[in-house]
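Q: I'm teaching a short session on how sequence maps to structure, and I want students to see two examples side by side rather than one. Could you give me a first protein with its sequence written out and its structure tokens following it? Keep the formatting plain so it prints cleanly on a handout.
A: Of course. Example one:
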Amino acid sequence: MDLNTALQIQVQGYPNRLKSYLVGKEEGQYLIIKAPTMQNPEDFFTKDQELVIRYVYQGRVFGFKSPIMLCIRNSINLIFVKFPKIIEDHNLRTHKRFECSLLARLEVLTRHQNRQLRFQGSIGDLSKGGCKATISLKELEWVKEPLKIQSDVNIFLSLPGIEDELIMQGVVRSMSQDSNALSLGIQFVDLSGKVQTQIEKFIDANKI
């Protein structure tokens, strides 16, 4: 999310979505947003109050929930919210997904598209439209530049019963993290008909 990104904010107790924009951030720590123009903001924007924040990037709608850390009420009028651990792409899931647990290799391009980061990971669910990939935090210890929403990804995956290794290109659409691993919601891009057929064959063969 870039500075000056337009935001829509929902806060409990207020009936309408409020307009704001991003004025600053500390990666992994907090976001700073301009306090929306409204009457009696102190009645709604208080410490620990959870906000629902949405924004549009390249024609897609993203959203997350985050609690307020600090409100500055003076001529600046700023709100600090906790940096989100989960950002959802509301246009992501267009295909039904099949739960699985498969080892995979991932190549992720950095934000500046000038360096490939290679990881061992696993695929937790799979469809023709995308997958959920999980990378151990130990794999990420040496990475200085954090992975980003919109990063390009190549996935190398061997499916049981399928002889050839599948190579799938995708884009990171959502991210979440727990104490052990980083999970990536990945949307596939321009899959060949052969790869789509192999994914369908694998899913059909493993349906209960």
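Q: Perfect. Now a second example for contrast.
A: Example two:
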Amino acid sequence: MVRLFFRLAVALIAAVLSVTAVAEEKTEKDLAQELTNPIADLMTIPIQLNVDDNIGLNDKGQKTTLNIQPVIPFQVNEDLNLITRTIVPVVRQEDIVTGQGSQSGLGDINVQLFFSPRKPTSSGVIWGGGAVLLLPTATDSLIGAEKWGAGPAGVALKMNGPWTYGGLANHIWSFAGDDDRADINNTFLQPFAAYTWSNNWTVSLQSESTYNWKQQEWSIPVNVSAAKLVFPGGLPVSLQAGVGRWLETPDAGPEGWRFRLQANIVLPR
């Protein structure tokens, strides 16, 4: 009887551990895919490093941008969230403006606010709408617009099995700032698609295109990246590496290839 009880206990424990392992694996995979949603109900701190080359009228400039991008959700009520996405750029650039050498410092901060239903629509669409704000926080006039800006913002996406696809868009008009600097009238478009495997790997394809209505010029990069969700010290972190190519830029814009590294830290709530 004791031996039979021991065997049953071992079998029960093994079954519980097996179910728990499967549940944890599913949770990790779901989290890896949820990180592809820009308005997910998650508190995260993406830290993103971008390197662009062949900038300026002589194509000799280089720019390195470290974007610190905290995403903080707030529950407005039982049906609605407010998702705040802030982009704080730290810039180092060299030989972009002829005869000006190098500049480094804080760039202009971009704040995006999205009101989003807590549940998808009946067709599975996740969406949000709100506003974008541009703050003239640059510590050097050559790495900032020196303009205040604002405008509408929206995002819509769908998760279909392992796929996530959708787009984010906003438009910024300047309304105050240095009168000697060019006004801002820019549309930003970010279509994206991602595929997440059960081993927590994600591959994504996206663009971060801008149309300048004043100059009637496009800036269009196409970016491909791979990310892996890991748990150093038990804290979820998505590590990402990617490469991109500029398809269209103004005369003084970046050309050729671009490179990206990112760590997306998920914080407990």
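Q: What should students look for in example two?
A: Point them to this: Helices lie at 2-34. Also worth mentioning: Residues 2-267 form a domain with the Porin fold (CATH 2.40.160.40).
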